[in-house]
Specification:
31% helix; Methyltransferase domain-containing protein; 23S_rRNA_MeTrnsfrase_RlmA; transferase; globular; 252 residues
Length: 252
């Protein structure tokens, strides 16, 4: 991006851009993030090809699920954020998925043992008891999750120093899965370099990934954003690290 562009122009552009769905195409040329080495979409496609009934929890705009080349006969997705619902329904027509609106804090609205595969990419939270309940015996849960302290450098650039993270640790996920009666068969971790090339990319990311700076608004943090703009112009891209882990569990 052109470093000479004014901070207010970049901020206003990002503040007006849509953030529906869970695609990040708006950041093309403005930010980059390494991909996890395990290839979540490929793993999902492999599991889907062998499933007869599958559920995608917190599908977002359905971006990952829509790319499955051989979907199962019964394919369902849930989403708890209303702006994503129409996006997901439109995106998932091609794979024949039914999209169900859910209360993010409520139970999954499905019968016991309804699915032989449940997947979830970056869930807001995982209800392990509900996941185990809707899985058939022998079924699989596969999820790429956000790890503890993800994008901490960006959070602290806006909020100041933060205490050590106490949530989203992979070990906690393993313990919760086992407490729900699941058996964890795979756990992998990755720290992924992310670069933001202009302050507009930062603003758009913070509007979309809302847990990075809870309660973020441009007006509330405008002074911090201007400081960060000057830092990017003077020193180059702002670097942060996304924390991810992959967990796979089965219901005995």
């Amino acid at each position: 991006m052109d470093a000479a562009r004014d901070a207010e122009e970049l901020i206003a552009e990002a503040a007006a851009a849509p953030v529906d769905g869970w695609g990040f195409g708006w950041l093309a040329g403005r930010a980059t993030e390494e991909r996890p080495p395990w290839g979540y979409a490929r793993l999902v496609a492999d599991r889907m090809a062998r499933a007869t009934s599958a559920l995608d929890v917190d599908t977002g705009g359905g971006e990952v699920l829509a790319e499955v080349p051989r979907p199962p006969k019964l394919l369902t997705a849930t989403e708890g954020w209303p702006p994503n619902m129409e996006v997901a329904r439109r995106t998932l027509r091609r794979v024949g998925a039914t999209v169900v609106a859910v209360d993010p804090d409520g139970p999954l609205p499905f019968r016991d043992a309804s699915f032989d595969l449940v997947v979830s990419r970056h869930p807001v939270r995982t209800d392990w008891a509900q996941t185990a309940r809707v899985l058939r015996p022998g079924g699989t849960f596969l999820s790429q999750q956000i790890g503890a302290g993800t994008m901490r450098e960006l959070s602290e650039a806006v909020l100041g120093p933060l205490p050590p993270p106490d949530t989203r640790h992979p070990e906690h996920a393993v313990a919760s899965a086992e407490a729900a009666g699941l058996r964890v068969v795979d756990l992998r971790r990755a720290s992924l370099r992310a670069e933001f090339f202009d302050i507009g990319a930062v603003v758009w990311f913070l509007r979309k990934v809302v847990w990075t700076v809870p309660g973020f608004t441009v007006d509330r943090y405008r002074d911090r954003l201007r400081d960060l703009h000057r830092r990017i112009v003077d020193e180059g891209p702002f670097v942060a690290h996304a924390q991810r882990f992959l967990i796979e569990a089965t219901r005995p």
